[in-house]
Amino acid sequence: MINGLSVNYVYLATGVTDTRKSINGLSLIVSEQFGHDPFNGSVFVFCNRSRDKLKILYWECNGFWLYYRRLDKGKFKWPAELNEQTVSLSLRELHWLLDGLSYLQTEAHTVVSGLKNNR
């Protein structure tokens, strides 16, 4: 899905969003309610009340992408309304969420970087 795209940040809109909204309505939520720039290359993820539909808004180069995902069975592990209107995620955490897992995985392997080859 979003693999290979140049994504700056991933923001999850906590609570529920009217998923009848399209690009214009969602980009207004991003700028006016969240105080973010919808044109900065970040991914903004919205979920409906029954947690079986997601919309993902992403600006790339000269236009918006609007991804829509509807589950036939099951629900997304979506955070309830928190003190913050958005939660910042990594791309890896977004994939967990899309796979039906909580984005707050406690059993995932940690990312390892900067290893040196000892010879």
User: How many individual β-strands?
Assistant: 5
Q: If helices are DSSP runs of H or I spanning 4 or more residues, what is the number of helices?
A: 2
* Main sheet properties: 5 strands, mixed
Mean pLDDT metric = 85
Strand order of the largest sheet: 4-3-2-1-5
Quaternary: single chain
The ordered string of helix (H) and strand (E) elements is: EHEEEEH
Low-confidence parts, pLDDT < 50 over ≥5 residues? none
Rg calc: 15 Å
Approximate shape? globular
Number of domains: 1
Our estimate of the beta-strand percent is 15-25%
Helix content: 10-25%
Secondary-structure-based class equals alpha+beta
Question: How far apart lie the N and C ends?
Answer: 39 Å
List keywords for this structure.
119 residues, alpha+beta, five-stranded mixed beta sheet, 2 helices
Brief overview:
The chain is α+β, with helices and mostly antiparallel strands and 119 residues long. It has helices at 23-33, 91-98; strands at residues 10-13, 43-47, 53-60, 63-70, 86-89. The chain contains two helices and five strands; from the N terminus they run βαββββα.
Give a description of the structure.
It is a single chain. This protein has helices at residues 23-33, 91-98; strands at residues 10-13, 43-47, 53-60, 63-70, 86-89. With 119 residues, it is an alpha+beta fold. The protein has one domain. The longest helix is centred in the first third of the chain and has 11 residues, at 23-33.
Give the secondary structure arrangement, pairings included:
Elements: E1 10-13, H1 23-33, E2 43-47, E3 53-60, E4 63-70, E5 86-89, H2 91-98
Parallel strand pairs: 1-2
Antiparallel strand pairs: 1-5, 2-3, 3-4
